[in-house]
């Protein structure tokens, strides 16, 4: 969510607190349009938001959303706030939209600490852990004879398939980085789609001052780590899914 939260307060490229407030007739409709919600959905959000006692401008303190739940605390920490630590109603609506529409895997990204996960695994019974991590190349019931019989067939097929796999070059990654930076696209959305977490992006931002090099390093890291048969096709799909189909078409045409 950390990566997606960067878009909460500017959904639809509109910052609503500059143009409307709770006293205006367009308060609900403006948020419905900006946050891609229906009028009934925004009304429901506003009813809940009022329970948190917003100020006259429709803002609340971030800590008013915090509970003792660990997931809640992590989520609230990701919400963008003003210099005064305030959460706008627009941010609240966008967060609700994200929670209602995102798949479980996306919601969990950035919320599970790796060290905590490892500690949890170590608490499992030894046999359960071993069976979960045991991954033989050949199933136990597969015979060596049967495997050898099909070796020639699979080798020949692999050669044919490999000729159709498009290689991913440094120049292609460089062009993508240049275009994403030049067009001011949200490269963190692409990073998230490729499996990077918010903390990974922050590390790149600390390492490189300019956006182009941040993106290029991210793409090169992904290419080295990618465990997919056709990295080029995978990257094309990720670009399309994050609103960068024009760049994908230009690079891979």
TrEMBL record:
All residue ranges annotated as the Death domain in the record: 186-253
Pfam families cross-referenced by the UniProt entry: Death (PF00531)
GO terms for biological process, alphabetical: extrinsic apoptotic signaling pathway; positive regulation of innate immune response
UniProt GO cellular component terms: CD95 death-inducing signaling complex
Coiled coil: none
GO molecular function, one term: death receptor binding
Database matches in Gene3D superfamilies: Death Domain, Fas
Protein name: Death domain-containing protein
